[in-house]
Amino acid sequence: MTSDALTPESSAEFDLIAAAIAGRTGIPFRPRAASPVGGGSIHRAWHIDDGSRHYFVKANALAAAPMFAAEAQGLQALSAAAVVPTPTFVTLGQTPTQAFLVLDYLDLSALDRAGGARLGAALAQLHRVSGDSFGWREDNFIGATPQFNAPHPGWPHFFGERRLRPQLQFALQNGVDKALVAKGYAIIERIGGLFIDYQPAPSLLHGDLWSGNAAQTREGTPVIFDPACYYGDRETDIAMAELFGGFPSSFFAAYRAAWPLDSGYETRKPLYNLYHILNHFNLFGSAYLGQAQRMIEGLLRELKR
How many domains does the chain fold into? Predict the structure, then answer.
């Protein structure tokens, strides 16, 4: 097998991964090539193949095993909804030094106008898959950060206590000024003010829908991946899709045509994106602190009106 800057370093590690693939599929698999795949900031990834079958492998230290298990569960939940295509889960496991996740490999490219429109319409259908309460069957991860999902019947309570409060606590541990964290806690105490005339249903969410987690196949079929699934307000997926850019305008237009957003969405959008900006601060450092501070101050002004 050939490799380009292959990590795990030894071919023996890939032999173990190949054996796991064969064990799950029931077909012998002897990879002849492994090519690194970029795009991720947390895990390492490769495209491996035997000339006819192609797989996508993600690997990290053994401590990452729960992250891969949660990702597999999320992909399977999205697949079961049968609305938006996802890479097919193959297997996961561990070598002596690595945890790994294996998916079917897809040759993907950035969403174009048509692909964006297809994804927007499909995402609206996905959001119509509803749960009994807000949350998920177990905790999972947003990036490498734990995401707490104990179910609750009330959305404002769930988002304040399961999303914002943990991120604020992590931020305090990571050196954020106590006064700013206290302002974040004040938002949680007043959060109901953003939901006076709005009661969202618990929609099945991707949960981490930035443009790097969506693409299209050569045939133009949209695909989503790297989920952080839970049942929540559908506005959160749209808010994050807007946060970092990268989605074609056709995506948003098609979504709104299929299921218009509530008139209060623009007011709640900073609340939902504060979760992700705090998470980026906790994962990647101070470059996101100023943005978090501006969002907190803006939300407090809105809640004092």
Answer: 2
